[in-house]
Structures are given as C-alpha cells and as structure tokens.
Amino acid sequence: MPGFARLAPALLLLAACGGGDAAETALSVPVIDTLPGGVVRVTNTGPTAWAGDVGWRFEQTATIAPAEGSPGELSDIAGLVTDDAGNVYVMQRQPALIKVYGPDGAWKMDIGREGDGPGEFRPGMLGLVGDTLIVQDPNNTRMTTFLTDGTFLDTHPSQCCWSTSRGLTSFDDGSVAILGPPADQESSSGAYFMTRPDGTVIDTVPMLPRDPNRDPDGAWVVRRTSGQSSSIYMTNIPGRPQDLSAFRRDRMIVRGNTATYELVLGRTFTDTARIIRAEAPELSLTDAQRDSLFDEAIEGVGESWREGFLEVAKRSDIPGTRPRWSALAVDDANRIWVGLPGPSSSVETIEVFSPEGVLLGRLAAPDPGILGGVFHGDRVVLRDESDLGLPIIRIFTLRRPSES
After folding, report:
1. 18-54: b or e for each residue (b if 16 or more CB lie within 10 Å)?
2. Quick check: 391 and 385 in contact, CB under 8 A?
3. How far is the CA of 206 from the CAs of 125, 179, 272, 330, in angstroms?
4. For the domain 68-213, what is the CATH code?
5. How far apart are CA 229 and CA 159, in angstroms?
6. From CA 86, how far away is CA 24, in angstroms rounded?
7. How many CB atoms are located within 10 Å of the residue 389 CB?
8. pLDDT (tens digit, 9 = 90+) per residue, 91-119?
9. Which of 10, 251, 306, 308 is the most exposed place for a label (fewest CB within 10 A)?
C-alpha cells in the first residue's frame, strides 16, 4: 500500500469547514510514515474530520416488532441481512425459515422451510450477494440459495460443522466467507472459505494456529463428551483482552488485541500492510461492576450449559480494568468502527476511521451492541429484545451533517 508523509492541510481545512474556530483548533493531523519493509503506520492523536457532537450520529429510524401470533412474529433469530432497498431478511431457528420485512418494518413473506429437500434447510447462517440469499447449513454441509423474491435457486455442498453468530460476510467480488475446519486436521484453528453462490471456493484464509491442548487465556471453556461425540462451548471472560477481527468488503482483514489500541490491516491473519494506532484511556472496574459482568455472562450461556460454566468460571477471573477498546466493525465503504468502553458500558463511544486508518471522529453509541449489527449503506440493523424479553429488530440510520 502507498504511504503518505502527512495528511494534506487542504483536506484538514475542508473537514473543519462549517465547524468554526473551536472545531478547527480541536482537530488533529495524523502522522503517517512507512516502516522498513513497506508497512505503512498511521498514528492518530485525535479526530481529523469533526470534533465533539457536531459530526456523525446514529438515529433510530424503525423497529421491527410484529405482534405475537401474527404471520410476521419474530422468534429465535439466528441472523439477518439487509439489501439496498431497505428490506430485512431474518433467519429464524425454530422452525427454520427466512422472514422478510419491508423498510417500514412490515412483514412481507417467508422464504423456504425447515427440512432436507429442495428449497429446505436447517438452522444456519445467512448471507446476501446482490439479489441472492445464501443459507449456509453447516450440519448438513450444504448451502442453499434463493432470490430475494423467494424463488429457490439451487443447493450445493459446502463446509461442515462450524458456525458464527455474525453470519456470512459478503465481499465485492461476489463471494461470502464460510467458516470451516482447517485442511490440516492437527490444527485446532479453522479457516474462512471464500465461496461463490454456486458453491465454488475461490480462496481459503487460515485462522491463526492454536494449541488444541490449551484453553484460551481470555475465555471460559466447557467440554462435554457423550459416547463418541463431543461438544465445546467457549465464552469470553468479560473485561479480558481478546483478539478481534473483521473483514473489509475488499477481503482485507482488520485485526487487533483489545489490550492495546493498535489495529493491523492485512490480506491474511499473519501479514501486515498497515498499522493503525490511536489513544484511549484505561478505565477501572468496581467490585460491583465485576459482579454484574460475571452474573450477565453466566446468564447468557443458557440454562443447559450454566452448571458447567459455574464449575469453571470465577468472579476473580474478571480483571479490575476494562480493555482499551471492546468492539470492531467495518462498513460497506471499508471504514473501520471501533467501540470504546465507558464507566458503565462495554461500548459507550465509537471512533470512526477512514479505510486508510485516519481517525475521522467520535460519536455516541446508541446501544452497546451497535457494532454487532449489520452495516449496509447508512443503516445498521440490530437484533435486540423488548422490555418483555421478546425478539425485536432495531434499525439505525447514520446522519452525517458534516458532509451535507
């Protein structure tokens, strides 16, 4: 990637335009240099495009919450995607099917049904490439495709057994990333198989190798064995530093460890093309906050696994400080969104970086889970629960007055 000596002053003045003298003096210029070997390093000391509350913000613009007993009633959401027209497609687990809602949140139709025949599938992961919906059924090692109007297209063999709560990431080349076991079965790490809607695998990106005999330091792990089969449930220890990563639309990978505010951009999980640095304070956790985080984590694993986690999890495992950052997402324009914790929330502030790693500005997080939602255009679609504990979907729209 090309490097730049410093952000052009003209760009800085343009970004500050309309904000007045106070906004201009609050803005920063990053230091961008090239390290030996050609790696570009971007060191940010503050926002470059807007400061304070005069820049971007999220506004909740719709909620999908059909009445109980209605045809569109939401139940056990496994994943979702959204298209250019604002339609939302929701993968439901029980029974397995895809529910479709319009931009106004109204239910439109169901697609597919649970089963193993043509046009049928088991609960899996959902992706969208153009006007083609992709259902990855890991347990049946196959993917099923539909047009967004509900027309069944085809079924193809695919990877086995692995799943992720984020669903299938779509790329500009028309492929999706399907998580599966590694080619080297002696490694406990998996791989991402870049797969076209016709089932063709065009590339494989291995994850970092991991010692299968050692549990991750930042996670609680429970193993079960029944006869010849075994299962593993792993959940991150709240507050512990962890490795996070996200794919860009051009298949570049943004990755980092939350212990330090440094992100790495590369084509794989091991190479480095660009380093992005920023600043964030270290925040302390009170004993009451640590107890609350522990209780929430144990509650979240589900009743069938709870007893096992109570045997391995300890309140003392939770550290006395929050990580420097806590969430990561990438939007359609390859901008990088990083969630920063606050005194009482895992994500209270969001910092937005350009695709090149320049910090544009900060905005308030409308929900701690916002970066776990689906970014598409200027919208983020987020699954949530109502006050009564019922599944709902909230839609946020990004407002950018500084670009108007």
Report:
1. ebeeebeeebebbebeeeeeebbbbbbeebbbbbeeb
2. yes
3. 20, 10, 15, 20
4. 2.120.10.30
5. 19
6. 36
7. 6
8. 998 899 999 999 989 999 999 999 999 99
9. 10
Distance CA 192, CA 134 (A): 16
User: Each residue of 84-93: pLDDT tens digit?
Assistant: 999 999 999 8
Residue 125, both tokens = 């992961």
Instruction: Report the C-alpha gap between 330 and 367 in whole angstroms.
Output: 17
Q: What is the pTM of this model?
A: 0.86
205: closest CA among 263, 252, 166, 257?
252
**Structural tokens at position 279:** 């600043």
Cα 123 from Cα 13, distance rounded (Å) = 51
117 secondary structure, DSSP code: S
DSSP 3-state of 335 = coil
Terminal Cα-to-Cα distance of the chain (whole angstroms): 30
- Give per-residue pLDDT as tens, 230-266: 777 888 888 888 899 999 999 999 999 999 999 999 9
pLDDT above 50 for 10: no
Q: How far is CA 223 from CA 210, 235, 293, 384, in A?
A: 17, 12, 22, 29
Q: In the structure encoding, which two tokens stand for residue 380, read together?
A: 């983020």
What span, in angstroms and rounded, lies between the C-alpha atoms of 140 and 137?
Answer: 6
In whole angstroms, what is the distance from residue 22 CA to residue 380 CA? 31
Q: Before 66, cis peptide (omega within 30)? A: no
- Check residue 270 and report its DSSP letter: S
